[in-house]
Amino acid sequence: MTVTASWVSKKADRCGGDACVRDTRITVWGLVAYRRLGMSDTEILPAVQGLTPVDLEAAWEYAAAHPDEIDEAIRANEEGEEGFVE
Fold it and tell me: Chain centroid to CA 30: how far?
């Protein structure tokens, strides 16, 4: 199933303008970071309150389409410049 791009949004006043699923504060880069730590979708879903399987699908599609943006956001977080998934 292909999720429309509108499922992921970026707003200047939310999470520093980072891409988030729906109108939440769940960042795409935060979800990607969890996956890079070895977490499966079935582990991520209960770890992030309010997250749905469709949210994850949208996040993975967005991350695949914007790898440089996601890598930069993860790097910034590792250097202490941003918060994590909220």
Answer: 5
